[in-house]
# Entry
Amino acid sequence: GVLLRWDFYIWEDLYIELTRAIVECGKAYIVVLTQSQANQVRSTLQNNGVPTDSVEFFYTPTNSVWIRDYGPWWIYHLSDSTWGIVDFEYNRPRPDDDTMPWHLAHVWNVPLYISDLVHTGGNFMVDGLGCGFASNLIYQENSYTPQEIESILGAYMGLDTLYVFQRINGEYTGHIDMWAKLLDDHTALIAYYPPGDPNHNLLNQHAERFAQIKNGNGIYFDTVRIPSPPVYSGVYRSYTNSLIFNERVLLPIYNHPYDTVAIRIYQQVMPGYEIKTFDCSEIIEWGGAVHCITKLVALPKQPGPGISLYRFYEPISYKLVGSNPGQRFKLRFILDKLTPVQIYLIDQVGRTVRRIVSRVLDAGDYLIPIDGSGLASGVYLLRIVIGNDRATEKIVVVD
# Structure
């Protein structure tokens, strides 16, 4: 399916048509705040002839429509054939957006792996075979070294190699999806600007570099160039900002003569896929198009309502040090290798109230303070995820 955070204002017509295309070949998961909003969206879709049998609503507060950047990344564990969600730090001051993947993982009963790496979805592509791609925005927004960033993405996303490209000139998001698109595991679509444009030489260099990269199966990437409309007032109209979903391409267009060229190129390089176009002339002025407002869902939600979400079956080795009840505790554990660690407090209705640790830690003996100061008195769950091992511990906070 596809996640969308519904827009009730400027771009609702675009969302209606996107939903129509999605439910024709899959499921639309629409993010709203309340049941009242869900009823409003359902009525809007039905009044416009969009069937809602394949529409499901997810209720959570959000700040913006840019779900590509803050939404969940799905991962698959080959060792035990299970799914999980990875959540990186969002690079915008939008706290509700940043916690949306937490809520989804909790409600859908999917294991959540949290990293403090600042990394947005629009600046990340993978070939599914161990290679990842991003612009150097990922270096600019993190204090980690390039080697540490690659190590974190290896631990969380299974990457063997991260290829980083200079962000293009003038485009303020810095995201790779504004000028590149992986069409499959060995084909890269790269934007083209004519001589004289500030990005002409840079994108030629990027295309040449892609052609020298081997994917995870050792096959060199094919590169396809796609002309982009001229930049105006800082607006970059991107044809690479598309979504590939269930043998269908959802392609942004801009009422420009290059639209027909873009459609033809997609038809040529993706035979067997249906190309559906969407007028993104307005939303692109805000820095994104189809790809930026959609996020793929890898599997249906899992059963497990309520607090049962926080049951764990393979306790890890740890020890709580300190008085209980109280406000301050310490958690002790030993790592024998580089390991992703997540520790956070959850209240009795399932809300995450405090992130304590969310990063990859080196081997060593750790004593982590668990501080409940500032929280209301009551029972909380301390959720502990160390590598593939998980546990919970009830703690009591007394004000």
Summary: The CA atoms of residues 24 and 285 lie 28 Å apart. The domain at 60-296 is CATH 3.75.10.10 (L-arginine/glycine Amidinotransferase; Chain A). Helices lie at 12-23, 35-47, 67-70, 95-108, 137-140, 146-157, 200-211, 258-269.
